[in-house]
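fyi for ur records
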Amino acid sequence: MKSIIKKDKSLLHKKARIREALNNLDRDKIYILYFCYYFNWHNIYHTPLLIFTKLLSMLTKKSCVDHVCHISRFVYDRRDKIFIPKIFEATIKLGMDENDLESKLETMQGKVYIEQLGDVNKIIARDFENKFRQVPYSIKLAKDSGIDIEFLKKKDYPNGDGGFCSWLVTIFLQLQSNASKQNIMKAVKRKIESIENGNPLEITPADLYDADFSKKALFYDSKK
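which gave:
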């Protein structure tokens, strides 16, 4: 009985920490989230590309980032009177789709870093999501993006060929920065263009993280 009570308190504490982090977000800003999963059996089982991303980080000496996504919108929770963010991301099981950030944080084992950018153009964001929703995930393209071999490079291909997380975020940021007159978004555009000539197919989560578009902060750590 004591162990059950202790576990329940731990879950409530985790949920409270997550809610506190979510409540501090500005609903009019662009947020990029970087996921760094712990290297354990749970994550290896649930994240098929984890070994590849960890090995790639060792070989390239880049930051060890396993996944990246952006906050797509906020949904008001009437019961708790809080806005819950949704994320638009690429996952192997569902392809490009919108998911609940709170639920994802509750089950993940790792750290999440957040980067706040300029104002989000919500019309462009909705059009972007409508266009890319349900595009399948391509493990091959995700792996090829981290391998700097000329004959593997691709310049363009239809959405039906699939995509991956950093490809999706890169296109989102390109669309947002092209439409923005804010200095921070102009800087984002220049930095993206300096990474692999701005080719979304060649940009990895680590590339986006190391671009340092803005100051990052630790958003969530499942061990705390």
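Residues 2-221 form one domain. thats all i got for now
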